[in-house]
Amino acid sequence: MIVNSQIEEQAKQTALQPEQNQEFHWRQCWYPVCFVQDLPKNRPYSFSLYDEPFVLFRDENGQLVCLVDRCPHRAAKLSDGQITDGKIECLYHGWQFGSDGQCLHIPQLSTDAKIPANACVQSFEVVERQGIVWMWAGEREAAVDGYIPTIEELEKPEFVTTDVMRDLPYDQFSFTSISRRLTP
Ligand code: FES
C-alpha cells in the first residue's frame, strides 16, 4: 500500500509538471503564414497576426524577409510599396528597408547625411518548411527551429497532398486556417 501511494503521489506530481513549467506566450511560437506557392513574385505579401500587420518579401538572394508592415516615417503600409533590388520601398516617400529592417535609403537626404538609427522596422525570423512559410513572432534570437511541426509523410513520394487555406471569422480576431490532406 505504501508503494501504491508513493506511485500515486509521483503520478500526481508528474501530471502537474507540464502546467507548472509551461508559461505560454503567444509571441514565443511559430505561426504558419501561407503556402510558399501562394507568395507573389517580386511583390510584398501582407498578413496580420492578432491584428498586428506584417509584410513578407524576398531579398536580393531570394531569402524571405518578414517585417512589421508599418513605415517608421509616417506609418504607411510597406506592403503597398514595391520591391527594388531586394529591398522594400515605401510607396509614400520612397524610404527603402533591407532584410534586417534597417533603413538603407532615404531619397530626401543629401548624399553625405547619415540615416538615423531609429529609421528601422522590426524584423522577424521566417522559415520555409515543407512548402509552408512560418514566422516566429518573438525575438529572433529566441526562435527554435526544431519547434516547427513537420509531417514525415510529406517527404515520401507515394503521398500526394491537397493544400487548403481559408479565412475563418471568430469573435476576437479573424483566423486563417492552413490544412493539408494526405493521400497515400
Ligand atoms: S511614410 Fe514611408 S517613406 Fe514616408
Automatic annotation (TrEMBL):
Q: Which domain of life is it from?
A: Bacteria
Key word 4Fe-4S present in the record? Answer: no
Give one Pfam family, short name only: Rieske
Record has Transferase as a keyword: no
Keywords annotated in UniProt: 2Fe-2S, Iron, Iron-sulfur, Metal-binding
Question: Which part of the chain is the Rieske domain?
Answer: 30-135
Read off the InterPro entries from this record.
Cholesterol_7-desaturase, Rieske_2Fe-2S, Rieske_2Fe-2S_sf
Protein name, as recorded: Rieske 2Fe-2S domain-containing protein
Q: Which organism is it from?
A: Plectonema radiosum NIES-515
